[in-house]
Each structure stands twice: as structure tokens, then as C-alpha cells.
Design brief:
The complex is a heterodimer of chains A (557) and B (596). The longest helix of chain A is centred in the N-terminal third of the chain and has 30 residues. Chain A has 9 helices and 24 strands. Chain A folds into 2 domains: 264 residues, PmbA/TldD superfamily (PmbA/TldD fold, 2-Layer Sandwich), CATH 3.30.2290; 251 residues, no CATH class. In chain B, helix 2 packs across helix 3. The chains are: A alpha+beta (557), B alpha+beta (596).
Chain lengths: 557, 596
């Protein structure tokens, strides 16, 4: 495994120690009480729910390229998000109507110190503005409702949940920027050894995120975490114009466990060599046939084609494809596969999981859920927006500041009962190649992530962007790296084609972007053998590599 | 975000360096690794050719780099809400192919590149090789961009009928060599943070102010510019400024606001704290007064702009029309978004009364002992700023030009201050001096205003003391203004609404009214100026090329000064926008200290 992080679960979830509430909790609570009481008495329509969430984000970022610092930034922000619900939990201003994407919150910066006068005035004015938007929409959709045929899913708009009280704070952020700048200069210079890397960088990012949530239901939650990431990336251009890249990343919940120089240098070398090999590899040809997806590639595959489709709010959005809406209790995956979402799990095999949290953004306590049990769909990812058969949240209401909360993924874990060693899996691939009479099969080693369309109007397709793909030959020839392969296909079809999995789990950590912003997630999965996968050749840009040689290759004048 | 500003204050240091016997490398720039990397890579770039050659060869290169330490504090009611300190380098590499007569600029897609970019970062270290590497990638992209633009331009010309006036695309200039010795300033960040926070608390004293904020931005920068024509300059390029906004709401729900900005070319030249305190307090007082002021009504008649308001309206009606961009080429039938100068065809025509002259002079650094922020030595194209007689005896004489030739003037007068469109820079005013050969005391102008009203049986005339310029409201209000302009028969561009506008009654009494905006006002209105005051005022602001120089919009920053007298207009039209007013907040504001 790449990181030697010794990680403590308690440190992440409890932030070292359970502590008393911060002064901000009281300031927000006082102002919440005052606004909620007055609005309930005097406003028409009256709110039945008011919530404030403040995200305090402290961040350090350093980026270096070929021995020089390219960017350095230290920042701290406190962003207020305001939730006002008017009407009733049965029918409120958040109701999904047609293709409306609502956004009521007005992300607002508040004082970085706990200056009650400054914060209260900002909170008061923001509440007024958010209330107005909420009231306007309720009135509009209430009158429109008379003209609308009944929705297929007539669930309520807001679930009833137990108010929570929980106070923790992550440790202070310790980051020595001068030391890191010096290290990054040193390690990034190593990329100069790879002339194919037209540009490259090594970056480190450390964050301390703390959220403070207070609601009119009595929830008072403060949680947070530290997060650190080291990224290495290199980009180049093949002689035919194809843009290629390679990358390496490390994530950890404790900045002091970021990799040491030797480990970073190894990764720089790997990224450099991978890119160089790609630049000289033959381009992919369109292909349909058997393949192995590495655990990390499989993780992305599941995140994109499965995870996004079981996000609860999509099941009652009539503009969505609703692939699985009516599949609860039915088989959706091979019987040897189960899928679990576990935000309470902080690490897997010593690797920090990126989608970990103690409470979601609606103050619902995180818990593991079994979404698919032995192939059968059991549960959706739920925020406090109920759907048919699922009246409650299971702690997956998430957002980044400035967005409205929807259900999102956390740590996706694919478990398999049909697992074999990596060597056995490869043997099975070769048998499958022979059986299908194909010249070769594929091995997807590294992927960067992907995107997916879930809307009903769009094609129900997904694309995962592979970085490192090999042709695996049945006749014992060595594997051949190819470049520019894109996986294409339709989701349901690809699930049926999983034959077996490896017995080794791998972790993919990433940032997932969707309606409610960018949230950290991870996907843990074994390598998958699929009987059929389809690739297309990546669209190629027409421009040439740089015309003049790199100046450093000519020497100083 | 790229923020660049143009200014020079190291002039003395510069001339001292130039006079020293040149044994050292100071003049050649060899002591400066940035300059050396720029020069060496620019020299090597001359080898750039596409395989096919032909007239796609570069004829001009320019490397422009600003190295800036930016410190920013935003504060609300006594507390910082954002503090940042960023070191950035903003390189701008330009490659022109073809010839001065016909090159890759001036097409609607000039500057667009469809290929992959590899020049998204730039070294912050003084690392010679890393700097050259980055410049190499930027040059490569700029060259390919030029080739792409050139092909499109040729294709467009091929399908269009012959152009009527064939102006060259780029003018020649004398190369300039000037390497000022720059001493970087350090500012005491915690002290400034505390100061900004403290100043922002002033608005807490006004219960009528429901939202307020204060921003301080200190940009300490050096700009380098090298061209293949031999220009090599290095100069101090700094700006230090404050801007504050305050907003209130009247009993009928109308939002009222006021704003102020203070700017200087270095922090030591900012107004004193006492002065800032006084002017910020005035903003609070203005919002308070506006909160209780009666709603104005439509009016058309004699209007007096006091000197500050006159400077603000001149910045828009005259200043913004002194740049004259060229319409870009496009395939026939394609819709081209283009915003010409309202004065485009007015060279030689009267645009102001014949007793008025207007000069734009970037070479002036002070006026009556006060610093002028529009002062600079070189513009964005490295051309020394020259004084320009813009209007003489009321007649438009010249535009403020860049190296893009105009029909009226082929040469640059060193006014390329803002980024333009379609591969060209945009001209902008620097220090604009409005001079009059006849003037009278302001008090007499007020009497004149009253007399005119009496003559015309008007119960009152209007007096404008301050406009919302630079504009302090959000995008929504800007859009509303933009729609109102052409409808009222005025400028296509929106005009800032007045903040402080008074009815002046026959007995001289002034009554503040709110909620008015101008109707039908454009550069043509300037011909109706009847008289000017003897008193003049220095008004300065930061122009950023955004509509109404909207506060806080990014881009290249061009600090600007205007010296102007009060102006009496024969007729100005005001209207009340028929906007829906928001309701008052249901919940009363929190009381100060109630949470302790």
C-alpha cells in the first residue's frame, strides 16, 4: 500500500476530543431563535423550519513545477448557508416540480472572529432574503399545483428526524509552508527527466473543515476534519496531437502522515514513466470484448454507473432516468456482489477514505447502509427528502457551501463473494478472450474519474476516463500499453457482464461534483472481470506539440 | 483572476539609475533574472515558424509580466470576513503574425485557441530555466492562437466584399528602454487588518444601515515589458485602495445605498485615517438621510452637477467615449457584439461648449499638491503616456489611442490602459482635466439654476451632488439600468444613477430625494452645458473596464483622476423606475450587544 499512515478512527470522528460548543453555536442559536420566533408569528406564509450551517474552511495550497513554486495560497473562509422551509413538511418550498433546480441559500461570508454583532446582523439580513425566496416559490408552486397531474411519487418534502446534539472540533492545522515549498521544489525538479512531460506539477493541499449546524428543531452539531492531499500530474502530447496525462495522488486525514520525499520521488518517477510510455504507445482501436478493471477503476465504475443512480432525490425527479426507482427488492447486480455506503468508516487497509463524516449536512448521524445485498437492491441514499417507501434520511444529505442539500455518496464499498486471486482473475480473462475468439482483452489499470448523465433526456450512458490501459493477449505475449481509450456503454448492460472479482480491495479517493456541489467521496472495490466492455478512441485534438524545443534542453545562453 | 495595474512611482529612482555610469548590469537588466529569462526566450522565439512558412511568420513579439504581492482584507462591522495574501505573476505573451498592415488581430475570433493549453501556471520563483520554460509554452500557445485567428480572418475576408477603409492593424513605435530600480514595499498586514476592521465598525453607529462592508486591497507590483522591437521596460506597478458600501431600506421598501473609494499609488499616499473616517461616516449619514428622504418624481429641466458629480458624469459621457475601438471583421451575416464610441464620427465636431477644453495628461503626478492616481509612465503596450488635447474650444480633437490605428490618428498616444477585444488594447482616460475659459462661483450657478426655474415656471430645479460611480450595486441593478438607457433615447451604455440628488426651491432650500435615475442622457447632453463653476474638484477612482467601473469587478485596474468644475445643464431628464419594491424585513434587526 502506498501510504504508511497510522490512522486513528477516533481522531477523525471525534476530532481528538469531544469539546464544548464553540461561541459560534450560541451566536447562531440566539439569532435563529429570534428570527424563527418572529417569522412564525408575523410572516405569511410562516416557516416551519430554519437552519444555519457555517462552514469554516482553512486551506493551504502549494504547487510546484520543475523546481519552482507556481502557486501558493493560504485562505480561511466562513460561509453561512441558510435553509428556510415554509409551508408544511408535506408540501414546502423545496418540492421538486418539473425541471426546476431550486436554490434558496445565499452563501454569505461571516466574521472570522466570533463578533456577535457583525455575525448576527449578517445572519438576520440573509435570513430575510432567503425567507423571501422560499415564500415566493411556495406561493407559486401551490397555485401551479392545481394545474398539475398527481406526481408518481407523492412523498412528503421533508422527513422527521431526531434532533442531534454533538460537538467536536478537528485538531488545529499544522502546516509548515516553507518546508513544504522546499520539498516540492526538490521533488518537482525530478520531472525534468521526462522530456515528454510538457508541463507537470506536484502540489500539496491541506484543509481543516469545520461545520457548525443549528436548526429550529434543536439540532446543534459541530464536526469537522483535517484533510491532506498530495497530487502529481504530468501532461504531454503525442506526435499525432493526442493529449495525454498521468497522475498520482495520496490522501490522508492527518497532514503529518503525508508521504515522505522518497515515496514522493517514486511517485514522480512513476508518473513520468507512465506518461513517457503512453506517448509512445499505439492508439486504442474501437473494441468490444472482455476486460479486467483494476480495483480503483472498478471503484469509479461503480461510483458513476451505480452510485449516482441510487441517490434518493433522483427517484422522485420526473426528469430523471429513474433507472432503479422501481427495483427495490429486485436483482440489480450479480448475486455475488453487495454494495455498502459507509461514511463512518475512516480508512480501508490503512488508506484514509475521503467520504467520511460523523453527521451529514442536515445534522443526521452518519451510518453504514447496505444498498445492495447479494445483488438485490435494498436501499437508496437518502437525505431528508423522502421518497416512496423511504420516509427517512439515512445520513447522506450533503453539499458544499453555497448549494442546496441533496442525497450524495459517501464511502462506496463493493463486496464480493466470488473472489479469486489477481493471478486467477487474469487466467480467467485469458480463457474468456479465447472463448470469445478475440485477439486480445483489456486491462484498465488507472482511471481519473468520469462523468455520468442520469437525466432521462440524455443518453443513459457513462464515460470513465482511463489513464493506463493495456492489451492482454491470449498467446502469452507481454501486455501492450495503449493510449486514448474511453470506456463507453450503458449502465444496466454493464452490470450483467461482471463475471468475477479479485480478492484484493483498492481505494479510489476523489471529489464528486453534482447538483449540491463538490463533496469528497471514495470508492473501494476489488478488480472486476467483465465479459464485455466497449471502448472508443478518445477524441483527439489537432494541434501540434510545441514547435520549438524546450529551452532547458538547449541550455542557457 | 488577473489583476494588473499600471502606475509608476519609482521615477526618481529610475532617472538616478539612468544617470549612473553604466559599469554594472543595471541598465542591461542582467542583474534581474526575470528580465534575462524574458529577453533570452523572446530572442529564441524569433525562430518560430510553421513548417509551411509563408506569411504566417511572426513579425512582433511582446512579453509582459507583472509580479504582484496582493493583500486583501474585507471587513463587516468590526470584523474581518476575508483576509488573503497572494503572490502572483500574470504573464501576457503576444505574438503577431503577418505584418503591421495586416495581422491576426481584429477578427471576432482573434485570440481564441481551440487546442490544448500547457501554459496555465507560471513560476513564482526567480528560477531562470523555469521562467524560460513557462514563457516558451506561452509563446507557443500565442503563436498557434495567432495562426488560428489569421486563418479565420482570411476566410472571413474571402467571403466579404472589399473593405472600404483599409487601416493597418498595428502602428510602429519608437522602442523605449527604461529599467527603473524597484524597491518592494512591505506592509504590516496585522496592523492593516485591524485598521480595516476598525474602520468597518463605523457603520455600526447607523441603525439605518442594514448591510455594509469595507474592502482594502494592496497590490505591490512590478511590471516588465519586452518587445521584439527593442522596448525593454521595468516599472513600479502598484495600487493601494479601499472601497466601502452601505445599504439601507426606506419605509416603503426601497433599497438605498452609498459607497466611497480611496485610492493611491502606494499605501503611504492614502488619505489619513481621520480623513477616511470622516468620509466613511459621511456614507453612513447619506444612507441615513436617504432612508428618510421622499421619493423623487419624474423631472425634466435645469440641473446643476456639483464638481464631484460633474466629474462622475464626465467620466461616463466623455471619458468612456474617448476610446474608439475598431469593429471586428466577421463572416457576412454574423452578429457581432460591438460597442463603438458614441463620438466615433465626431472628430472636428463640437461636443462641448466652445469655452471648454479637455486635456488628458498621464504625465502629471500631482494637482494642487494632491497626488494624481492617473499618473503613469508607460501604458500596457509600453508606449510612454503623452498629454493629449482631447477637446479644444468644445471641438473633439483626438481620441485616446493605442497601437491600433484609427482613421483619425495612426499613432498611439500612450493610452492603452485596459484590455480590449479582438486582440487589441483599449484606450482609457488617465488624468482628465476639464478646463473652462469662462466660469463663475458655484453659488452664482445655484442662483442661475433658481432663476432658470422661475423663468420656466418650474417649482424647483435639480442639484446632483454625487452619483453611484463607480457603481456599487449588484448585477441585477446593472441589468435594469442597461435596459433603461436605450428605451429613454439615451446612451446605449447604462449611466450611473444619482445617489445624492436634491430639489432646489426658489428660496434656495435643498431637499434630498431618492429613487431617481437619468433618462435619455448621452454624450450629446454635453452640448447643453450652460455654465461651469470656478471651483474645481479632484475626483479619483479605479477604472476596471467593467460597465460603470463596477466596484470589485476584476480585470486590469486603471486608476483614474478627473479634475472638473460644477456644470449647469439646460435640461436633464430624471425618471422613477417602476420597479417592484421589496418588503421590509419581517424580523427587526438585532440590537447591538444583545448577544453578550
Amino acid at each position: 500500500m502506498r501510504t504508511s499512515a497510522v490512522f486513528s478512527l477516533a481522531a477523525l470522528l471525534l476530532g481528538g476530543s469531544v469539546h464544548g460548543q464553540s461561541p459560534l453555536v450560541k451566536i447562531l442559536s440566539d439569532e435563529l431563535e429570534r428570527n424563527f420566533t418572529a417569522l412564525k408569528q408575523k410572516a405569511d406564509p410562516a416557516p416551519y423550519f430554519l437552519g444555519y450551517e457555517v462552514t469554516d474552511l482553512q486551506e493551504d495550497l502549494i504547487l510546484a513545477s520543475r523546481g519552482s513554486i507556481d502557486g501558493q495560497n493560504h485562505s480561511r473562509n466562513r460561509i453561512l448557508d441558510t435553509t428556510v422551509r415554509v409551508g408544511t413538511p408535506k408540501f414546502d418550498n423545496y418540492r421538486r416540480v418539473g425541471s426546476d433546480r431550486v436554490r434558496f441559500t445565499l452563501p454569505t461570508r461571516i466574521a472570522l472572529d466570533d463578533n456577535a454583532d457583525s455575525i448576527r446582523k449578517t445572519v438576520w439580513l440573509t435570513t430575510d432574503r432567503v425567507y423571501r425566496g422560499a415564500a415566493q416559490r411556495l406561493i407559486r408552486i401551490q397555485s401551479d399545483e392545481k394545474l398539475r397531474s398527481a406526481a408518481a411519487d407523492g412523498s412528503d418534502d421533508f422527513s422527521v428526524e431526531q434532533p442531534q446534539k454533538f460537538f467536536s472540533s478537528p485538531p488545529e492545522l499544522k502546516f509548515n509552508s516553507a518546508e513544504w515549498a522546499a520539498r516540492l521544489r526538490k521533488v518537482s525538479a525530478e520531472m525534468s527527466k521526462y522530456p515528454g512531460a510538457i508541463n507537470s506539477d506536484v502540489g500539496v493541499e491541506v484543509q481543516r473543515v469545520m461545520t457548525t449546524l443549528v436548526t429550529s428543531e434543536g439540532t446543534r452539531v459541530e464536526t469537522g476534519r483535517l484533510f491532506a492531499r498530495l497530487m502529481i500530474s504530468a501532461r504531454g502530447k503525442a506526435t499525432d496531437g493526442m493529449d495525454l496525462g498521468s497522475m498520482e495522488t495520496f490522501e490522508t486525514g492527518d497532514p503529518s502522515t503525508l508521504p515522505k520525499d522518497a515515496q514522493i520521488l517514486e511517485a514522480v518517477e512513476r508518473a513520468g514513466k507512465n506518461l513517457t510510455a503512453l506517448l509512445h504507445a499505439p492508439p486504442a482501436d474501437p473494441f468490444v470484448g472482455p476486460a479486467i478493471l483494476s480495483g480503483r477503476a472498478a471503484g469509479v465504475f461503480f461510483h458513476e454507473i451505480f452510485g449516482h443512480r441510487i441517490e434518493g432525490h433522483r427517484q422522485k425527479d420526473e426528469t430523471e432516468g429513474q433507472t432503479f426507482t422501481k427495483s427495490v427488492g429486485k436483482p440489480v447486480l450479480p448475486t455475488f456482489l453487495s454494495v455498502i455506503f459507509d461514511p463512518t468508516r475512516a480508512e480501508y487497509n490503512g488508506i484514509t477514505l475521503n467520504g467520511t463524516y460523523a453527521y451529514d449536512d442536515e445534522g443526521v448521524k452518519a451510518r453504514p447502509i447496505v444498498a445492495v445485498d447479494k445483488g438485490i437492491l435494498k436501499e437508496f441514499l437518502m437525505s431528508r427528502s423522502p421518497i416512496n417507501g423511504f420516509p427517512n434520511s439515512n445520513g447522506h444529505g450533503r453539499r458544499s457551501p453555497g448549494n442546496e442539500i441533496v442525497s450524495r455518496q459517501s464511502n462506496l464499498i463493493v463486496e464480493s463473494s466470488n473472489k479469486v486471486s489477481d493471478a486467477e482473475l487474469r487466467k480467467m480473462l485469458i480463457e474468456e478472450i479465447k472463448k470469445q475468439g478475440k485477439p486480445y482483452g483489456l486491462y484498465f489499470d488507472q482511471v481519473t474519474g468520469g462523468y455520468t448523465t442520469t437525466a432521462s433526456r440524455g443518453l443513459q450512458a457513462f464515460t470513465v476516463i482511463p489513464l493506463i490501459v493495456y492489451r492482454v493477449f491470449a498467446d502469452g505475449r507481454p501486455d501492450e500499453l495503449i493510449r486514448g481509450a474511453d470506456i463507453v456503454g450503458t449502465p444496466l448492460a454493464s452490470f450483467e457482464k461482471i463475471i468475477a472479482t479479485s480478492d484484493k480491495m483498492e481505494v479510489f479517493n476523489g471529489i464528486c461534483g453534482a447538483e449540491s456541489g463538490n463533496v469528497p467521496v471514495s470508492a473501494v472495490a476489488p478488480a472486476l472481470l467483465v465479459s464485455q466492455i466497449e471502448i472508443q478512441r478518445k477524441e483527439r485534438s489537432q494541434d501540434r506539440p510545441p514547435i520549438l524545443a524546450r529551452p532547458s534542453s538547449e541550455g542557457p545562453k | 483572476m488577473i489583476i494588473r495595474i499600471l502606475a509608476v512611482s519609482g521615477l526618481l529612482a529610475c532617472s538616478a539609475t539612468l544617470l549612473l555610469p553604466q559599469k554594472s548590469d543595471a541598465l542591461s537588466g542582467n542583474d534581474d533574472v526575470i528580465l534575462r529569462a524574458m529577453r533570452d526566450e523572446l530572442e529564441r522565439s524569433r525562430e518560430l515558424r510553421v513548417v509551411s512558412g509563408g506569411d504566417d511568420s511572426p513579425y512582433f513579439f511582446s512579453y509582459d509580466l507583472t509580479d504582484t504581492n496582493e493583500f486583501h482584507v474585507a471587513a463587516v462591522l468590526g470584523s474581518p470576513i476575508a483576509v488573503s495574501n497572494v503572490h502572483f505573476r500574470a504573464p501576457q505573451v503576444e505574438v503577431r503574425i503577418g505584418s503591421y498592415d495586416f495581422d491576426n488581430t481584429g477578427h471576432i475570433f482573434s485570440g481564441r485557441y481551440s487546442g490544448a493549453r500547457f501554459d496555465n501556471t507560471f513560476p513564482l520563483d526567480d528560477n531562470y530555466m523555469a521562467l524560460r520554460d513557462a514563457l516558451w509554452l506561452s509563446t507557443d500557445t500565442a503563436y498557434k492562437t495567432a495562426i488560428e485567428s489569421m486563418s479565420r480572418k482570411r476566410a472571413a475576408l474571402n467571403s466579404a466584399s472589399a473593405q472600404t477603409d483599409k487601416l493597418p492593424d498595428f502602428s510602429r513605435v519608437e522602442p523605449v528602454k527604461s529599467l527603473a530600480k524597484i524597491t518592494r514595499r512591505k506592509i504590516d498586514e496585522p496592523a492593516w487588518t485591524a485598521r480595516v476592521a476598525k474602520l468597518s465598525s463605523l457603520f455600526g453607529a447607523f441603525s439605518e444601515v442594514i448591510a455594509s462592508g469595507l474592502d482594502f486591497q494592496n497590490l505591490d507590483g512590478v511590471t516588465y515589458l519586452l518587445t521584439s522591437e527593442g522596448t525593454a521596460i521595468r516599472y513600479d506597478d502598484s495600487l493601494s485602495w479601499f472601497f466601502a458600501r452601505a445599504e439601507g431600506q426606506t419605509p416603503d421598501g426601497m433599497m438605498v445605498r452609498d459607497a466611497v473609494s480611496f485610492q493611491a499609488l502606494e499605501p503611504s499616499k492614502l488619505p489619513s485615517e481621520a480623513d477616511m473616517r470622516q468620509r466613511l461616516t459621511a456614507v453612513g449619514e447619506n444612507v441615513r438621510a436617504l432612508s428618510y428622504a421622499p421619493l423623487g418624481e419624474s423631472f425634466s429641466g435645469p440641473t446643476l452637477f456639483e464638481p464631484e458629480a460633474a466629474a462622475q458624469i464626465l467620466a461616463q459621457l466623455l471619458g468612456d467615449n474617448l476610446r474608439s475601438p475598431r469593429k471586428p471583421l466577421a463572416e457576412p451575416g454574423r452578429n457581432v457584439s460591438f460597442n463603438p464610441s458614441e463620438l466615433e464620427t465626431k472628430i472636428g465636431s463640437r461636443i462641448l461648449p466652445d469655452w471648454m477644453d479637455v486635456v488628458d495628461d498621464p504625465t502629471q503626478s500631482t494637482w494642487q499638491g494632491k497626488p494624481l492616481v492617473g499618473f503613469y509612465q508607460f501604458d500596457l503596450e509600453g508606449v510612454p503616456g503623452k498629454p493629449v488635447v482631447v477637446v479644444e474650444k468644445g471641438v473633439l480633437k483626438s481620441f485616446l489611442t493605442t497601437r491600433q490605428p484609427l482613421k483619425s490618428s495612426a499613432a498611439s498616444n500612450g493610452h492603452a490602459r485596459l484590455s480590449g477585444n479582438y486582440g487589441a488594447r483599449s484606450g482609457a482616460i488617465s488624468n482628465l482635466f476639464v478646463k473652462t475659459s469662462q466660469s463663475e462661483p458655484l453659488s452664482d450657478l445655484k442662483k442661475k439654476l433658481i432663476d432658470m426655474c422661475k423663468e420656466r415656471n418650474k417649482p424647483y430645479g435639480m442639484l446632483v451632488r454625487k452619483l453611484d460611480y463607480p457603481f456599487s450595486a449588484g448585477r441585477g441593478e446593472l441589468q435594469a439600468l442597461g435596459q433603461s438607457g436605450p428605451q429613454g433615447g439615451g446612451s446605449v451604455r447604462p449611466i450611473s444613477p444619482p445617489v445624492l440628488v436634491y430639489r432646489v426651491y426658489a428660496d434656495g432650500r435643498e431637499e434630498l430625494v431618492r429613487g431617481l435615475r437619468f433618462r435619455g442622457v448621452s454624450s450629446r447632453s454635453l452640448r447643453d452645458v450652460l455654465a461651469a463653476s470656478r471651483e474645481t474638484v479632484l475626483f479619483d477612482y479605479v477604472n476596471n473596464g467593467a460597465p460603470l467601473a463596477t466596484l470589485g469587478a476584476g480585470g486590469i485596474l486603471a486608476p483614474t483622476s478627473i479634475v472638473a468644475p460644477a456644470l449647469l445643464f439646460e435640461e436633464i431628464e430624471f425618471e422613477v423606475p417602476q420597479d417592484q419594491l421589496p418588503k421590509l424585513p419581517v424580523v427587526p434587526p438585532p440590537h447591538s450587544g444583545s448577544s453578550h
